[in-house]
Amino acid sequence: MNLPIVELLGFIAAGLSSCSFIPQVYRVYKTKSMQNISWCMLGISILAGTLWLIYGFYLENSILIVSSAITCSLHISLTYFKFKFKMRLQEYPKY
């Protein structure tokens, strides 16, 4: 694999950007708490990731496609947890 330095930098940047949400998803999964995660942030992030994914397909840029897909899936996981843990709190109210 002989990547030009600019593509290598793009690959590293995309990988780090995508992976930056893994600790948040893990923390939410372990703590079962989404209180400090904004619905607005999740919506904007999913929209941005989807647009980056479409743009990546348009450019036929595999690095952009993969990183956008990973980032989008992590944001969708956070949205799922937000719904799941909100429902759990409503089912079992604290007294």
UniProtKB/TrEMBL annotation:
<feature type="transmembrane region" description="Helical">
    <location>
        <begin position="38"/>
        <end position="57"/>
    </location>
</feature>
<protein>
    <submittedName>
        <fullName>SemiSWEET transporter</fullName>
    </submittedName>
</protein>
<keyword id="KW-0812">Transmembrane</keyword>
<dbReference type="InterPro" id="IPR006603">
    <property type="entry name" value="PQ-loop_rpt"/>
</dbReference>
<keyword id="KW-1133">Transmembrane helix</keyword>
<feature type="transmembrane region" description="Helical">
    <location>
        <begin position="63"/>
        <end position="81"/>
    </location>
</feature>
<dbReference type="Pfam" id="PF04193">
    <property type="entry name" value="PQ-loop"/>
</dbReference>
<feature type="transmembrane region" description="Helical">
    <location>
        <begin position="6"/>
        <end position="26"/>
    </location>
</feature>
<keyword id="KW-0472">Membrane</keyword>
